[in-house]
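Supplementary Text 2. Reproducibility record for the structural model of the 117-residue chain.

All settings were left at their defaults, and a single model was retained for analysis rather than an ensemble. We include the record here because the model underlies the residue-level annotations in Supplementary Table 4.
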Amino acid sequence: YSNARAFVALNKITGRAQCWGSSRNGGSCSDLDFAGVTDIYSTGSTFMALNKNTGKAQCWGSSRAVGSCSTLDFSGVTDVYSTGDKIVALSKNTSKVVCWPGNTCDSIDSDGLFASG
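Retained model, structure tokens:
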């Protein structure tokens, strides 16, 4: 996994990861626990390690872009998308939308987003 200035290699079997590159942009992750992590997503300067089984996430990288994501509930997430500075997670089953950093999803009409037809 990569962003503009750092990389992450995840071993899902052992729950271990190695990060390298710019430490200010996520190249340092020795203090994180990757046990159970199923996926890693990135923005231009941050990373999010997600355990889709528990809905828990850890985020690290640029202090200007990082806000804690440990309090956000990603349970039931089916799709995750990222841009240069945001990550949005969607659940097609429950119409849940979670955004990070900042949890700025208020303007998204999840009913209209998931409407069938």
